[in-house]
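Protocol step 4 of 5: obtain the predicted structure for the target chain.
Materials: sequence only (see below). No template structures provided, no constraints applied. The aim of this step is simply to have a reference model before the mutagenesis design in step 5. Sequence pasted as it appears in the construct record:
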Amino acid sequence: MRQAPCDRGRARGRRLVIDLAREAEDARLDRGLSYRGLGRALGISGEQAARICRGESPDVSLVRIAELLEVVGLELGARAFPGSVPFRDQGQLSLLARFRPRVAASLIWRLEQPVIALPGTSDQRAWDASIGGPGWSVGVEAETHIHDSQAVTRRLALKQRDGDVDAVILLLTDSRWHRDLVRAADDLRESFPVAARVALRQLGDGKPPGGNALVLL
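Step 4 output (structure tokens):
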């Protein structure tokens, strides 16, 4: 049974907190610090400090974990990585629904198609949809409003590089903002060189689009 995004995030956060607490506990032992002394430095009781270090407080805040690590001589660093399928709002779902009839019924259409990882690796990313034909496949990404075209092109280039797709279709809501953005953004035109009308005609005929394409709908 698939977990909701919030449930996945909560479980991952708790695992990370427990792992970090274990590192803090190892450092505490190496430095000969007592729970009482640790708690005093943190402004909490020794019992509270002990529960955190033992992984018994998985909902403790990231700020508190960072404080704990600093006290035992460690420094917390963090960054976010592309992960599981993000929450999709109604606008994205509507955009995909408008695009679906433009694709020939003979082609295979799938929603939330996982990025196929290389053997021996794992990848939790997914395409919003995928289109498949004999010997070829296309990843589809739907965006209702983009602010940073370079960030989008970099993200999709990495997914295309890591995933087993021959081309990418970037669907954008047909708005004045996006029309102006597309005219001004060289990176979008370079990353998606196939004209939308050509890609739509090809897909409507049950053929591959001929390359990456950006489609306003």
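Step 4 remarks: Residues 76 and 125 are 26 Å apart (CA to CA). Strands lie at 108-114, 126-133, 136-143, 167-172, 213-216.
Proceed to step 5.
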